[in-house]
Amino acid sequence: xxxxxxxxxxxxxxxxxxxxxxxxxxxxxxxxxxxxxxxxxxxxxxxxxxxxxxxxxxxxxxxxxxxxxxxxxxxxxxxxxxxxxxx
Length: 87
Known about the structure:
Layout: E1 2-6, H1 14-22, E2 27-34, E3 41-49, H2 52-62, E4 66-67, E5 70-71, E6 73-76
Antiparallel strand pairs: 1-3, 1-6, 2-3, 4-5
């Protein structure tokens, strides 16, 4: 199950994000999203859990919490809608 995580500190790296969420279960990947031009954090990311139950625990424990003074939003990630190509 993939989670969307917002409110991340600007200096947080992928491995640190993974370590935070591993306290709640087995994480297969964690990625902090970077700006394409500046390569600086956009202060959000995604965490993939191996099991849905671990992901649900992480949402309950971390959503609305704080990390380095930032309010965290942790919720189920939704795929971007596919926009049909127009000629």
